[in-house]
Amino acid sequence: MKIIVDDGFLFGAGVFETIKVEDGRAIFCEEHLRRLQKSLDFFDISQKISVKEIQAYLATQKEKNFALKIVVSARNILYLKRENPYLHQEKDRGVRLCFSKVLRNSSSAMVYHKTTQYYENLLEKKKAKQRQYDEVVFWNERGELAEGAVSNLFFLKGDQLYTPPVSCGLLPGIMRGKIMEYYPVEEKRILPEDLLDFDACFLTNSLMGVLWVREVEGIFYQKTKKIEKILAEQEAWK
């Protein structure tokens, strides 16, 4: 693999997408590429990738189930693959979340794009893992819930779904969009005291799909029938 040194390498001026590949097919490929192109246009990076190019790459791969990462900068387009870390996730166990002491800056354009300046997310998640948690959650500078290091959050009260609005400083995830496409969701600014009022919680991203959350740092949630319904129905969206 040849990498040309450019601002993406020197200053993190690049963007990426991570796509779930299942049975040789890139799941939600068009949605990922639309988001990628939007970020490339925003950062004035003159690159473009088509669905046909992704399909051509996948046709050369012996493996049929993996995570495909596409990294793009001014002079580079890289295709990287790794095992999907959620393939062996115990769905019934429920995941545990903790809070980061690092705040999301909702006034920064960087939080709304999947950029190669991503290590803060990974570092905070690593700290969470050391504390025996599965994922870490960020608040913004106003004390509002934003997002997980690699995920979006949804909460349930009765049959009503809630999620923080993008303006709280979060990446608009592909699976977040799918949940909002298939179910009525209210975008709500969520404060610390609100967490006690919800019945249930789950995470989303393109690799994990939907994962039930059983704990958010000492606050415990049920696995309700609504969540079981969403977990069962997500396979039909692909």
UniProtKB/TrEMBL annotation:
<dbReference type="GO" id="GO:0046394">
    <property type="term" value="P:carboxylic acid biosynthetic process"/>
</dbReference>
<dbReference type="InterPro" id="IPR043132">
    <property type="entry name" value="BCAT-like_C"/>
</dbReference>
<dbReference type="InterPro" id="IPR043131">
    <property type="entry name" value="BCAT-like_N"/>
</dbReference>
<dbReference type="InterPro" id="IPR018300">
    <property type="entry name" value="Aminotrans_IV_CS"/>
</dbReference>
<dbReference type="InterPro" id="IPR001544">
    <property type="entry name" value="Aminotrans_IV"/>
</dbReference>
<dbReference type="InterPro" id="IPR036038">
    <property type="entry name" value="Aminotransferase-like"/>
</dbReference>
<dbReference type="GO" id="GO:0016829">
    <property type="term" value="F:lyase activity"/>
</dbReference>
<keyword id="KW-0663">Pyridoxal phosphate</keyword>
<protein>
    <submittedName>
        <fullName>4-amino-4-deoxychorismate lyase</fullName>
    </submittedName>
</protein>
<dbReference type="InterPro" id="IPR050571">
    <property type="entry name" value="Class-IV_PLP-Dep_Aminotrnsfr"/>
</dbReference>
<comment type="similarity">
    <text>Belongs to the class-IV pyridoxal-phosphate-dependent aminotransferase family.</text>
</comment>
<dbReference type="Pfam" id="PF01063">
    <property type="entry name" value="Aminotran_4"/>
</dbReference>
<dbReference type="GO" id="GO:0005829">
    <property type="term" value="C:cytosol"/>
</dbReference>
<dbReference type="GO" id="GO:0008652">
    <property type="term" value="P:amino acid biosynthetic process"/>
</dbReference>
<keyword id="KW-0456">Lyase</keyword>
